[in-house]
Design a protein that fits this description.
The protein has helices at about 5-15, 25-40, 50-60, 70-85. The protein is an all-alpha fold. The protein has one domain (about 5-85): Acyl-CoA Binding Protein (Up-down Bundle). The radius of gyration is 13 Å and the shape is flat.
Length: about 90
């Protein structure tokens, strides 16, 4: 299985993580997913009155500079860790 296929498989598995998954972990996954699928941040930072969107943007910006492959690998690893923690 190639990296792209494995990434897509784990992206699907991430949707079934338990509701108890911490927001910080969800933001890490969001940032890695965006970096892997959209590349570097290509929008301006949302304003202070959009705290949720701002947190998501910050999570994406935090992984700026990672290659698509690096972001995919890190995403897969993080989903595996969260699945193990939930088991």
């Amino acid at each position: 299985m190639g990296l792209q296929e494995e990434f897509e498989e784990y992206a699907e598995k991430a949707t079934s993580l338990p509701p108890s998954t911490k927001d910080a972990d969800k933001l890490i996954l969001y940032g890695l997913y965006k970096q892997a699928t959209a590349g570097p941040v290509n929008t301006s930072r949302p304003g202070i009155f959009s705290p949720k969107e701002r947190a998501k943007w910050d999570a994406w910006k935090a992984v700026d500079g990672k290659s698509k492959e690096e972001a995919m690998g890190d995403y897969i690893t993080k989903v595996k860790q969260l699945q193990e923690a939930a088991a």
